[in-house]
Amino acid sequence: MGEFFGYVLASIPYGCAFSLVAVGLVLTYRATGVFNFAFAAEAYAATVIYSELISHGIERGWAAIIVVCLIAPAFGASLDFALFSRVPPNNRTAKTIMALGLMVVLPQIVQTAVPNTPLAPPAPFFSTSFRPVWRFGQDLVTGSQICEVLGTVLVLVGLMMLLRNRRFGLPIRAAVESPKLLELSGVDARWVLRFAWMISTALAALAGVLYQPGAATVDPHNYDLLLVASIAAAALAGLRNLPIAVLGGVLLGLAEGLVQGYVPSDSIAYSALVPSLPFLFLLVLLIFHPTLRHLEDTRDPMAAIEPPPPTPAIAMRPPSIDRAIRRLRWPLLGIMVLGVVLLVPSDWTSALTQGAALSIVFLSITLLTGLAGQLSLAQWMFAGIGASTTAQLAGSKHWPILLAALAGSLVAGLAGWIAALPALRLRGLPVALLTLCLALLGDNLLFPTSWVANGSTGIAVPRPSSIFGIDFSSVDSEGFFVLTVVVMLAVAGIVHLLLRGTTGRALTAVDASPVAASASGVQIRRTTVLVFIMSASIAGLGGSFWAMNQQFVSSDSFLYYFGPIYLVVVVAVGATTVEGAITAGMAWALINNAFTNLPSSVGGTQLGSKAFTVILLSFGAFAYARHPEGIVEFVKRRIAMTVFRTAEKRERPLVASVKDA
Amino acid sequence: MKRLLEVRDVSLRFGGITAVDHVSLDVFDGEAVGLIGSNGAGKTTLFRLIAGELALSGGRIQFDASSLPHRPDQRARLGIARTFQLVQLFGGLTVMDHLLVALQAHEGRQGPLRDMIWKGSSTSEEEALCLDTLRMCGLREVADAPATALSLGERRAVELARALVVRPSLLLADEPSSGLDTQEAARLARVIARARAETGLAVLLVEHDLHMVEAIAQRVVAMEAGRVIAEGTFDEVLRDEGVIASWLGRSA
Question: What secondary structure does DSSP assign to A105-130, as a single string?
Fold first, then answer.
């Protein structure tokens, strides 16, 4: 009993932090329609700022008050002002994408701004009360534990009273259904939503000040458990019920504490169960919780008054330009590839090859997100499965590398099929959560094993030695670049055929209205499963070529957080066209190469890499907020409009053809 | 006349609420049946049961003397088409694409593998059939326009065209005149009548606009609180004491 009580005591901080963040998640989702994936990142940022303030001589209590009551609400309000308020209320995909972007970019900003991180975890603001208050056998109840529990309970009770209040709570609950309807009732919905953001960010900051991730350093990835456990607690509450979210947080905290206490720390069960317990819990909830299956069913009744999305550029282009593009695209592409082979310095060839391989992975996002409207955060994990299979087959079994890559693609497709089965019951945000879960499970359970990516030790990945006398094996090989580009173009061709064919039409129909698509005879299940499989296969193939270019693969190659990063990049550049995916892949690799080659006088590799991620993702998130169709599509439309206006001024027959188009 | 749709003793319960209560009705080949009743009478729920969107709590539904498969898409491919009370269009697709989606799904010409072997584009026969249907529905001029950019009347016509393009045996039309002015409703009624004349289509029509019901339906079924309360010709049903009591709140 004493042992049990000790483990329960140890789990109190976890439970409190999980509850706070879960409540924040539910509150933000209910009030703003945004599922804030960035909550753990906000908690991390709060911890770092809290620690910085303490190190500058500010007393702990004041530091905590400054972080929770001043900085966090101001940050929440600015997030709403700069990003989320600019997204049409009904565009939930855009909101989710931006929250994902924030989840990735915020730790990078903090690490760039505070270069001395990781820091030692700061003690909670009531650390002076660490003295034992009660003693139960060998277990001590400290003043800090009592403060944690009482503080959490007080905050949560206060919040619930606030939400039940007619003046404050009612508008917040109404705002999520329809901000425009709320405004018609005479309430300024903008400030209601901003207020909700301020409260929820303050909750994340409070969790950050309270939460001790149980590691020696303050690293953003130590907050993954906080994120997933809170998501699981919020999911248990169906993203609706605050008391159940609190209960879920406490129960998960207890479960973590008890598992860590009772399962021997040197056992396989410990290493497998402890990190994956909340993921498994969330996985089960996502599949079986009835409320989560219908999360995306509600629509803003005033959505119809939103302006329609802009006309696609392809519908605005004069047919003559379409004809010119069709005739010139292959010669131009040939000239570009030849230019790379002949003119580009060899140290950039590898970057371009990486860009082509990434483009293949990104084309899988085009297929799944651009076409089917499903937000998958596990595409990089599928790429990892393909790459690991290729490495294992080529390394241990001595398969020819291209055959191994094909097998890798098939195995990734099989993983995609497994992921598709639970995803069939879900749409939108729950699919994003499910795939995030899978990616985290891959990170924790799959890639560290010797039979997949062999942990951080990794596996060497050979390149094809030569085909038709062309050498592929050397570092910065132009031959391997050409091979990767050919594979990329073949995949782009397949995705293009799907976009323009029956699948494109059927999936657009399913995305717009599943009930009408089904009533029209579209086989939603079969089409969705096939697209998941094909998308995962393409990602696996891209991962294999990426690994061949790196000539090495390990568990660190396919970290889960690249999934959201790449998703944000692709949708920001353009997820509905193959040129969007290729532009995103090439831009990522080239800009990354440019930044990581920064001279040491301006910060060197470390700063360059982080600054690159921050700049690209911030730009992507802002661009996506303003142009959800993607940068490529936006530029194409602007060009088409310019052509249209020029032709109109000159009163050429082109105008008539454009109008016809 | 052959019995096309046979609904026998069908019930649906949501927890303690009985939305459809032991309903039986028949629709014969080529026949038009109007389903009338106040809001909440269970008309749309009965439609959803027939379309396969909801599972029966009791009873059975047969189509063309056979049991129906479970899924809505399977029932659609058997020849049961439907329109919706709140217009359900595919944002991002043109009017023509709406028809192609339904037609290619009906013909089993839909799928990634087919697209990958260059068989994903529409055939000239499919396009001709779609254009014929669009012409019949008065939509030929807007075939290449995004469907969501059209007026409500045109959107309802697109829904109807999407349902009719597969030449279904039975059309479930759920309040097609909802939100339309008199002329638009009359035009839609003419399209349905013409489709019936040309293809022998049977129609089950849920409608509050009694002019449209009178114009289309040969037989009328009245529902109230999930039950059938009257059945007969248009005039017989409107004279029925139970229907009058249900609609006017008093006996005749």
Answer: HHHHHHHHHSTTPSPPPPPPTTGGG-
CB pairs under 8 A between A and B: 123
Residue corresponding to tokens 């009660």 = A134
Q: Please report the pLDDT score of residue A27 as a whole number.
A: 81
* Cα distances (angstroms) measured from residue B214 to each of B25, B156, B211: 19, 20, 5
* DSSP-based three-state secondary structure for A636: helix
CA distance B222 to A550: 72
Residue A305 DSSP code: G
More confident site: A239 or A90: A239
Which of A501, A512, A526 is nearest residue B91 as measured by Cβ atoms?
Answer: A512
Per the CB < 8 Å rule, is B105 touching A521?
Answer: yes
Give how far A547 is from chain B: nearest CA, Å.
27
Residues of B within 8 A of A309 (CB-CB) are 91-92
Q: What pLDDT sits at residue B102?
A: 94
Q: What's the CA gap between A214 and A225, in Å, rounded?
A: 11
What is the model's pTM? 0.84
Chain B partners of A534 at a C-beta cutoff of 8 Å?
112
Phi, psi of B63 (to 5 degrees): -125, 125
Length of chain A in residues, anyone?
A: 661
> Is the model more confident about A334 or about B10?
B10
Residue showing tokens 């149980």: A214
Rg (CA), chain B: 19
The ipTM assigned to this model is: 0.92
Hey, CA dihedral for A631, A634, A638, A644, is it positive or negative?
Answer: positive
Euclidean distance between CA atoms A323 and A565, whole angstroms: 36
Give the residues across from B81 on adjacent strands: B171
User: What integer pLDDT is reported at residue A606 of this predicted model?
Assistant: 52
Report the DSSP beta bridge partners of residue B222. Answer: B36, B230
By Cβ distance, the residue of A315, A494, A523 closest to B73 is A523
